[in-house]
Amino acid sequence: NAGVTQTPKFRVLKTGQSMTLLCAQDMNHEYMYWYRQDPGMGLRLIHYSVGEGTTAKGEVPDGYNVSRLKKQNFLLGLESAAPSQTSVYFCASSYSSPGTDTQYFGPGTRLTVL
Amino acid sequence: SQKIEQNSEALNIQEGKTATLTCNYTNYSPAYLQWYRQDPGRGPVFLLLIRENEKEKRKERLKVTFDTTLKQSLFHITASQPADSATYLCAPAGGSQGNLIFGKGTKLSVKP
Known about the structure:
The complex is a heterodimer. By secondary structure, chain A is mainly beta. Chain A has strands at 4-7, 10-13, 19-25, 31-38, 42-49, 56-57, 65-67, 73-78, 87-94, 104-105, 109-113. Chain A has no helices and 11 strands. The termini of chain A are far apart. Chain B is mainly β. In chain B, 0% of the residues lie in helices and 54% in strands. In chain B, a hairpin with a 4-residue loop joins strand 7 (62-67) and strand 8. The interface between A and B is medium-sized, with 27 and 27 residues.
């Protein structure tokens, strides 16, 4: 089992460019999450999904879109990147509801927006 | 708004001692609380989950307590080792759909 994988590991964008971060899990988990982690801020939930074809907003959704067309994949899109989106992005998944079950995290994507 | 505080940004202790990390939460009452470990450049790794009706949970050298009256969780590592050096994140469940709300973490350094 690979667990949770994220692509790419690093990326540098210019302001206004777009990109998609890919998260894949091979554990047949229903729930998937996108977080961002900034110095001094802790992990903050961007969007999450409770199953294939569903998405919902988390704490900091503005400037991001997500899609979950396949159960194993959760995509995070930035349509027009801004320097404030410079961060480390983590994807996670869990078998059942977030509070009651272990979340498995990917290795992260370090994004810099110039 | 819901708030999580891990009272120390950094904690330095000597090998063999017990490390105690504190997590306080305000403005809500989580039914579950989780602790994670995060090493530099890596994603968090789950350690323990404790429910509101459990006062204490143990796993090997780790112990977590959950005091719903004080709105506080304590995380203990006994007989600490340099390999325990990492950042430890507290995450009570309480956001929408019961999502986890993560604290900023406490960076633990265990000196030999």
